[in-house]
Structure formats: structure tokens, C-alpha cells
Amino acid sequence: MIRFCAVVAALALFTTTQTARAADGSSGCGPGWYIFKDVSLVSSSLRGTTNGILFPVTTIGMTFGTSNCSAHKIVDNQGESVKFATLAYHDLVVQMAQGKGEHLAAFANTLGCPWQTQIEFNRTLQASFQRIVPTDAVAPEAIVDQVRVELQTQPLLAQACSGAVG
Amino acid sequence: MQRRGRLNAVLQHLALMSLLSIVGSADAATLEPGGDSTLATLAQDEGWLALGHWRPTLTQGWRSDIEPGAFFLATNGRDSPAAELAATLKVMATGAPVGPNHWPGPCALPARATFLRQRGWPVAAAFCPEYAAFRRKLDVHSATLIFASAYANNPASMFGHVVLRLNHSARPDGQQPKLFTEADATPHLLDNSVAFLAQVGTDDDPLSYAYKGLTGGYPGAYMIDPYYVTVATYTDGESRDLWEYDLNLSEAEVSLLVDHVWEVATLAHFPYFFAHGNCAYQILSIITAARPSAHLMAATGLVVLPLEVARQVHDQLGSTAAVRWRPSLKRQLKTSLDRLSHDQRRRFDALRGDLQGLQAEASPQVVDALIAALNFQKFDSHNHLSAEQRYAFRAALVHRAELGPSDDLSPSEETPVAPDAGHLPAQARLGGGVRQGQGFATLVVKGGLHDFLSDSRGYESFAAIDYLEAALRYYDADRSLQLDHATVVAVNSLAPFDLVSKDWSWRAGIAWQPIEGRAYGGMKSHQLRGELGAGLTWGFFANHLSLFNLALIAADASPGLYHGLRLGPGLALGIVAQWGAYHLLAEWTERRDVIHGDDSRRWSLGQSLSFGRAWELRADWLLTSSRATRTTSGAQHDLQMTLGYAF
Q1: B489 to A7: CB separation less than 8 angstroms, yes or no
Q2: Residue A58: which domain range?
Q3: Which residues of A touch B226 (CB under 8 A)?
Q4: B296-317 confidence digits (pLDDT tens)
Q5: Based on the domain organization, do A61 and A20 belong to the same domain?
Q6: Does domain B422-646 have CATH number 2.40.128.130?
Q7: How far is B462 from B503, CA to CA, in rounded Å?
Q8: Of A50, A76, A102, which closes a domain?
Q9: Inter-axis angle of helices A140-152 and A118-127, to 10 degrees?
């Protein structure tokens, strides 16, 4: 693996410089904020901008919490469903409309829905898409709340999904 | 037996404590409480060295990659595995607090505790709520190495990026969801990933960024995120494919790995070096802690390439499970478009221009393609869609939901060649040729990585990056050995401009070459050339063939030139073709020297045929001509054939 150091320096100069701010105004912790975050000079391969949302306590003082999101309420207070809906927002909304996808399956998992109910889960969310996502900028918490409402309307899911009641 | 074991442990503990109290931090070799292991040999144990990230120094000593701080319990722990071992034994035996959080030693350093416990050393019982919560939250069953491949328009990313995924245990019911496709059967999005990332200041200018990156000016840290964050960051945000390589680690090794992640994440501080102490190197380090006998670090050199690390880990620790591919958003869009029939494509194009026909569109595939296109546009523009585009996206999603389930929503695309199956980075080529009627033998050696005549399988097709290439020639006629050229770095990004990729093509390079001939007044000299270019590329035949057009600016510096400098604009037109193992690159370049008013032209044609991932046969033809005002104009033919071997 003997390679050349300087080439990396040279290439660093060639990497693209882009700045951006999410249209939803989330410079911090909005839906999928980390994807649209400022990326001056480097790709995510190098940047330590993501945060360790999984940690059980925020007082550990780890080096993970490097972003605005470390102070956001989803870090320590909200459940997995809202975390997922916040951080995987864009893929989740698209797959809800399509009625299928890996993100939808993961979302069902966070709501405690067993895999045997996945088809029904997908169909329910697709059929109620306009109620769950009534505009193009819905708060993730509102999405999860409405999903729970929709699950309650389906006897199978209301019974099977342990997270159907918030 | 149990009583005897407990008695032994107590005796060992007492012996250790008495010795420690006598010798303090004396050389560990003197601390021998009995039993099979001695401290001296234990301090040289590859497992211990891996847990401390110690590497041998040129002076026969040791130095850890981890900076001095809470990670080391001995004051000279960074440079002395033995002293650190002695200090660790004391902390483990007493459960003394460690680090800024004052957690008991076995809680703060659980991997070290396991290492010592397995070798019969006493480890105090400790109450570890934070560590227990960490283990419970991660609930790790296995590990997978994730490789992020290159993304368009940035050949620097061809080096790749690696992340480690810590996979959750199987669901409590022992069932894996079998839903629609194989991809759905692997619910890995809720797993967690470990990455080693630099804390880069976003306000740094390019020069300070490069300087700090090369000299360890940025702090690095292990970060843990849900895998769906990693997936979105790379497949959506940067449109990079992810490759998932399962690791064949035992349950005990996985447990040690997780414990070590806890240790380094909470206590260790690292500098981040772009070339060496980078993401790949540090991920390799923590895998080594789990399986030191694999000696993964032995192969690391001055620069550690993520691509090479992925290949190495897969070769040495890879499971027999198939490598999984997670296509980027861009590739998903391309697949969605490729699956449309001619008529569907026509309707899709119409909807792109005018949404009026959306309500009448009954094909989920067409609407899915529209959603994929707008979704890609959203990420590509960093969420800066126009009001019309946002309205269109919303309308497409609502209409898609109204259409209901579709049987074939998941685009099925042939999995491309995995990066680890691509050619190795360095190459040596041996051959011969003719220049102006003179025969020569040639040896070309390059440090890496990939040019347009290299086998593109496993690589990004339209990105090329070459560095440290030197070509030697031996001319038979005058029995002279000459350096034909030396490339410092040459980067080309020729992503075709289309609906999916509206990217500029670009080029940058620095090379050194001798100059001789009538264009330079018959002088023998040398020049350093820097070149920048920007333009567009168009792809044809499913991008097997592309045409590019670049506007150039080039500067040559040479003592053999009048005023020592040549500077001016230029133009390059070319063709890149890639069909399986066959590759072709043809280029015409015209340059104008505004200082002297000279013109120069260059025609080149290169063809190659690859055999496996190591061997390659290459033929290059080159014609250069110049029209000079102060010197004599001339032309030069060059033809050579080489056999290359990648290593």
C-alpha cells in the first residue's frame, strides 16, 4: 500500500466547494438536515458533522455530538420512530407514496409492527398518504402521530404493532 | 474446581497488589505474579498491542496512534505498552476510576478488561450503567465493512471511504422479514455504523485545508450513527454506491470489537491525516483489535487507500456471503428510466415539461421515474428546488399514492462489478516502440490509480486519476537511457452530461517531461506543465462511448523556453470507449502560446485489452507537431506497445 501523500493534498484542492442551506430552514436538525448541510471543500467521507444520536445519555461528553443536533430534542427524548422519521425523512416520504421499500420496513420496525404485517402496513400508509403528509413540509413528529392514528383504524395493525399507541 | 479457581484469582490478585505496591511503575518485566503469562510477554502480545494502537517505531520502540490523554493510564503509556499494562492491571484489579467521566476501570476500558480476564488476571466487579446501556442499545450480532464508492465529478473520491456497520442481533422471534425482494430481507437500516471522521472547519480555505489534512491538523473521532443516516448521506446526498462486506468474526471477536469502539470513542483522541491516519486506517485498527492474528495493519504504508482496505478486509476476513450493493440515488434514477418502454419514456418526458397529464397517467413506473428524477434533483440541488419543482414533486407523490401498490416497484438492475474485484492500484508496464524511426524499450511505473485505458470494471467509468507515473526509455541507437515523462498527478472527470448528470467535465494535472528538438531551438531541456480544463461530455450507447470537449489553460515552465514560460489557452476533443475488457482513448489537443505566438497540436490514440484484474496489453500512438515563430516547426511520431501488470 505504498502510495503517494502529496496527491491527496493536490486532490483536496480540486474537490468541489458547495454551500447550501436546506429549504426547510434546517441548518441544524430538521428532516434529513445532515444531507443538505454545508459541505465546503470536502465530502462526508472526511467531515465529522454527524451526531451520535444513539447514545443513552448526553452527559457522556463524547466526541460524537458535534453538531447542532446534539442539543436537539430528538437526541434524548423522542422515540425511535420520530428519530427515524426525522433523519430518514426524504426516503420515508417517497416510499410511503410508493407503498414499498426498505425504509418503510424499518419504519414499521420502529413502531413495533411484526414483519408479517408489513404488506398491510405499507398499504395503510400509502392509502392515507395525503393525511399523513398533507403538505410538502410536515414535521416528523406530526407524521408519526398521524401514522399512529391510521394504524389504529386497522384492527390487524392496531393489535399487532406495539408502537401504534404513542 | 470453582473454589480453586477463585482461590487462584485471589492469590494472583494479592500477589499483583503487593508487587505493584513495591515497584510502583517499574518495568513490567519485573512484575511476574506467577502463572503462565508473564507481564513482559503479555505486553508484547499482539492483542494488547492492538488494543493500544501501538505501532513499532524505527528505533525499535513503540508509539501509539492515540494522542496522550485519558486513554493512557500510565504517564508514558503512549510509548510503553509495558508501562501501560502495569498501570492497567492495577486499575482493573481495584476498579479505580478512569477518564473524565470517572467510570470504574472495567467500565471505561472493557476490552482491556476482557483481554486480561481471559488470561487469568483479576478484574474487579464494577457497576457500569452507561456502558451497559451502550451495549444494550447497539445489541451487536455481527459486523459488516461498508465501502462508499466514487461519486460523479470528483475523481478524488475514487479512493473511496469505509465505515463499519455493527449489525443488530436477529429479531426476537428469530425471523427475518421476507417481503418482496432480497433487499427487503435485510433490515439493516436500523443497525449502527462506526466511522472515523475529521472535525473539519468549514471556513478553512483550500490551502490550509490541505496543509492541516496532511499534517494532522484536524482532530479525528470515531462516530456512531444509525446506518440509515450513513445510507442517506452517501447514496442520497452524494449519490455514491455502497458496498457491504460481511465480516467473518466470531461472537467473542464481535464483542471485543464493540468494547473497543466504546474505549476509543469515549477516551481516545486522534489526529486525522488524509493520507495515513484516515478513515480506512482507523477502521482497520479497530478491526485489528477484534482479530489481532489477522495482522491487518502490517500491510499499511505511507498512504492508506480505503479501496485497498476494503479489498484486504474482504480477502482476509470476508464471509462467504455475497457482497451486497446499495445503489445510489443517481443509479436508481437511471434504472427507473432504463426500465421504461419507449412509449412510457415519451410520457415521462412529457410530464417533465408539463404536469397536466399527470392525473391521467396510470402507470406506476412512469410516475416512479418522475419521482426519482425530482428526488435526485432535490438532492443534487441541496434541497433548492424551485416552487414549480416542489409542486411537481408533491403532485407526483400524491398521485403515486393514489395509484396504489405496484408489483414491480423495485428497480432490478444487474449488480455492477464490486470495487474489490477491480484492478489493483499500482502498475508496471514493460514494452517497446519506435520514435522518429528509433527503436526503444520502455518501462512505465505508476503508483496509482486508474486512467481511461485501465480496466474500468469495479471503477467509476468516467473518472480517472493517475499519480506518480514515470516512464523510462532505452534507445538502442545511441544506447541512452532517458526519462520520457513523469506525471505528478493527472485527474480527469468526464461524466456524461444528461438528464441525470448535469455536471461539467474537468481536468487538472501536473507533469514533468524532457523537451528536445527543433521547437526548442535544438536544445535539450525539461519542462514542468500544469494544465486545467473544463467542458462537457456526451455519452452514447449506454455510455459505452463518450465524446468530450474541454477548454484548456496550460502553463509550461522551462529553462529551455524563451522567457522561461509558455502560457496559453487550448482546446481538447476526444473519445472514450469502454466495452468490457477493451478500452480506447483518442484525443486531439490544440494549444496556443500567447507569450511567443506559437501553436502546438497533439493527436493521441490509446487502446488496451485487459486480462483479469492484473494484466493489460496497451498500444499508444502519439503525434505532436508545432508551429513556432522563433524556432523551427516540426512533428514527432511515437508508437509503443506495453504489457502491464497491476499490483
Answers
A1: yes
A2: 15-76
A3: 53-54, 83-84, 87
A4: 888 787 778 888 888 889 888 8
A5: yes
A6: yes
A7: 12
A8: A76
A9: 110
